[in-house]
Design brief:
With about 180 residues, the chain is mainly α. The protein contains 7 helices and no strands. α3 runs parallel beside α7 and α6 packs antiparallel against α7. It starts with a helix and ends with a helix.
Length: about 180
């Protein structure tokens, strides 16, 4: 990718940034999936996709297919952490769509006979200004959700690894004794 002139120019520009600016850029970059083929068209889509792909990128586990097994076998505290983090994101997404519905209804009400124009313009303006705030809050809330999902997947991988080691420690010596 560095052969691309636009990317090379951006890399040169990034090298001139301060440490604080680079840290802020890194913070934004971690909200994107590792694999470029997994990029989504929106910030929120990318923020969610990054932890959907975490299990596969790290352990080659398809966590989307195994989600019920993951949550069914995980400790209650880990499951609760994932649920609470997801609820935060869901809350901001609901606010975003709820405000969008208010804006659309107020705009439609403007076309009726004898509307209260100042009230409807306020009903369009205030929620309309809050929609980007809720979107940014939803994207930011995915950080906690991502950490919770990473903890869940890592817990499963660690637990599976421990079970495999115990199984091997039990069966391999017996196999070697019989075949030796």
């Amino acid at each position: 990718m560095r052969a691309n002139p636009r990317i090379a120019r951006a890399a040169r520009k990034d090298r001139r940034r301060t440490a604080v600016q680079r840290a802020l850029l890194r913070e934004r970059l971690v909200r994107y999936p590792v694999d470029d083929a997994q990029l989504a068209p929106t910030k929120l889509g990318n923020a969610i996709r990054r932890f959907e792909e975490y299990g596969y990128d790290r352990f080659r586990l398809d966590t989307q297919v195994m989600w019920n097994e993951l949550t069914g076998n995980a400790p209650e505290q880990v499951r609760r952490q994932v649920d609470l983090a997801r609820a935060n994101v869901d809350f901001f997404v609901a606010l975003l769509y709820g405000h969008r519905a208010v804006v659309l209804c107020a705009a439609a009400a403007l076309t009726t006979a004898g509307p209260d124009v100042p009230l409807l313009l306020t009903a369009i303006g205030v929620p309309g200004l809050l929609i980007p705030v809720w979107y940014h809050a939803a994207v930011s809330a995915t950080d906690e959700w991502s950490a919770a999902v990473r903890a869940l997947v890592s817990w499963l991988a660690t637990a599976a690894s421990a079970r495999t080691r115990r199984s091997l420690n039990h069966h391999v010596p017996r196999y070697l004794a019989v075949s030796g």
